[in-house]
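Risk mitigation, structural track. In case the binding assays with adenosine-5'-triphosphate fail to produce interpretable data, a predicted complex structure has been prepared as a fallback.
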Amino acid sequence: MYVEIHDYTKIIKRKTVLDHVNCGFERGEICGLVGPNGSGKTMLLRAICGFIRPTDGRVLIGGKPVVFNEALPEKIGVLIEHPGFIGADTAWGNLEYLAGLDGGFDEKETERLMKVFGLWQHRGDKVKSFSLGMRQKLAIVQALMEHQRLILLDEPMNGLDRESVMAFQQEMRRQRERGNAVIIASHQGAELQEIADRVLHVENGRIMS
Ligand SMILES: Nc1ncnc2c1ncn2[C@@H]1O[C@H](COP(=O)(O)OP(=O)(O)OP(=O)(O)O)[C@@H](O)[C@H]1O
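Fallback model:
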């Protein structure tokens, strides 16, 4: 398995938010996470990318451990909280800046993704002028633009119109074809089912299926 989660437990303020989670994710797979509000979907995504320190258990990516607050074994594409875009800067400027923090900016791939999501003509616009859906799409572009092999998306279809949802689904299939591992938490069950190879049900911090 490319991503392995071994007996992962997270307790916050005496509440068990992840409860002995064991699961794994393969490359070339789209896996959906569904479950009620507060069931632990976001927490599971945060665990995978090392944003939280486990109370117990561990996560491996490509066989290497993810350690809280340390460099990740792999570049991960993440859309969990809204990225801190600078409103006074342009869409392109924001992406260039964020890619630069990690070392490289692939202009061609970023252009391709902006075109997929209908943002190319807005590349020179300031992000503060963007609608909610446009910001969401910019955040998706940001999570994909560095050829990340592991992609974690929390409610990526929130605020997207039908056309954008379809563009998103098509792009996720493309990411799968490239051999990337895509994990998507979403309440949009039907739209998720259309693209997911597998759906895990999360309840009370546990994987039910
Ligand atoms: N900083 C925190 N301190 C205490 N409890 C927290 C904290 N962050 C999250 N939780 C709790 O962890 C549990 C899991 O939350 P999580 O955000 O993973 O749910 P979710 O499945 O993503 O929900 P939603 O569908 O609403 O996005 C919830 O009970 C939540 O209250």
